[in-house]
Amino acid sequence: MSMRGKGKGKGEGHEVIVKRRGKKGHDEEHGGAWKVAFADFTLAMMALFMVLWIVQPRMELSQPSFGDQESNPLVDGGAGVFDGTSTSPLELEGVPIRQAQSEPSPARDQAEDAEDGSRRYGSTAELQALAALMKDVAREVDALANLEVEVVPQGLRILIKDDQQRFMFARGSAVLDPHFGTLLGKLAGVLARVENKLIISGHTDATPYRGAAGYDNWNLSGDRALRARNVLVASGLPAAAVLQVTAQADVMPLRPQEPENGANRRVEILLLTDSAEALYRELFGDSYQQVRVSAQGAQYRGGS
Question: How far apart are the first and last CA of the chain?
Fold first, then answer.
């Protein structure tokens, strides 16, 4: 008798059904394990931060220098071993590390003096130090109101101008006021120790010059610039330091909205950086490109 029949003989009347389940996928077996690990890690980090937050005030009370920004390199913005002002050297496996040198001042950051004591200025910090020196010598002769010095991309712009009581030149002439002659003499003493080349330009306001026929603001501004150059050279500035003396008349006013304003009358000295001087020589020297025109036609000639 088969088992199927025997089962029925007992009067149970039920059929046994066996279900087989498939194996769980890999994702279902491990789907939540990483979440538990990440939660444990987050809890541990939170506990660590809480401990540090509680311990830090106690360390500051027991060691006042702990919170001092000047001696704590870990404080944001504080001084430390990375900016060369740490008070104690680090040691690595018993070998002391030398402290970094503090950043030199602009005066010490300049190029070394030449044999004649002159030097070339190039960086912004060097030019700013030179500007401060010029203001100091102007203050000595009570001419601070007559001098403006500004660092520009081309170098150092030195502007000499009138004030409410004194005019640099007599109206309509190139006769220099003695006060400004003294100022130029002081500036010459500073510029004589500078290797950078200079461009001197004269400027007038837009009031037309009334004088001899053919003599106008162009002539007047050029004569004034040349007069300033001669005073500088007579006061010790090497003649070779001046690359150009130029007349600007009223085409470069300081106050374009007020072309006849006396503030536009001035003499400017531009102390050139190396790159600005190289550009000047490229424009006006023998290296600029030329086009020669002859009976045979136009011929291009590159600079030497």
Answer: 121
